[in-house]
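Hey, quick one: can you model this chain's 3D structure?
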Amino acid sequence: MSPIPLSFSGFSDNQSPPMFSSKSLQDPFHTPSNNYLGPYQVQAINSSVFSQGIPEIPHVQQLQSLQDTITKLQLENSSLKAERDAVQGAYNTLISQLTVMRSDSMTPADGPINVMLQSAPIVPTPLLKGDFLPHLNRVDYPDVRFWTEKDWKTWSSTTPEGQRANPYTSYFEDDKGEPLNAEKIGNILQTAREIWHEFRTHGVIKTDTTWSSMSLTVKKAFRSEISRAHSDLNLCEDGWKIDMIGKRYYSSFKQTWFTNRSDDSGKRKAKKELTDDTTSSPKPKRVKLTLSLSPEDSGHSTGDSTSNRSASNTGDSSTLSSSSILGPCMPSGPSSRQYTFPDADDVSQFDDNYTRAHAPGEKACKG
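Sure thing. Here's the predicted structure for all 367 residues.
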């Protein structure tokens, strides 16, 4: 028999149940009061109590499991939102770089749309936002002659040595004040061309961009790159030697890479069309031209004073002794000569008489 809980007995520890009272012992036929619980009643009460307490435990477990599921779903939702934002950002970037090309008039309205992926312009890195040119102290380099642009201009205009020097390269010097050799100067100019070509490739500089109209951000990028490659250019105040490179040579670079390249492309196209038109026509005959070597022999043909040249009516090149054809670089005189014009990129050919502006890729002649 199960024990009777005290909460249902109605008696304290010091009290005896009615069935064990003295009156019940004296009267065997005494009937217990209604407060007494029989064994079957106690068992029923205990069963009901336990049946009410047992379901509470699974209910708490279900609540905890539901809370864990909610937390897990919230984390997954946050992760999916982050992935969606990343994909959306990449999609927006791609769309911004797509340029719809002008459709051809022959293309049907329901035809495919031609698109072109355009390179994004160079975005300056945080390093390019500041002044990266090292601020050197002139006291640490006492042998440098042209620390300021004024020093160089004064030397060029007032001293015999400066007046004879090349005004386009004489400001290049090392930390001992010695002029840079032709190889180093050539490397500096080559670096400048490469940087500008990179800017042009990414659309940072346009056809109408000049050195004076170039943005400050692009100029800073140019100064930074060329100063890192050639430390001798830092031996001056405020990087004026680097700016001088831009003033002297950028216009020639633009002429070479924007104007001349466009003209050459047009000429090649016209030449190709002309070639296609003349493929079916018979080849013209070659004629002999007698070129005079001296004014006295004009109109005469002798073995000592004439030479035969074969020239083509289609535009084959010939060597002519006419100063009007060769331009102002051809000297006048009783006889003709063939002259070789120096390449402007070869700075070793510069001399004191070099007065014409020189730039990479430009042909120059001595004045």
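One thing worth noting: The two ends are 133 Å apart (CA to CA).
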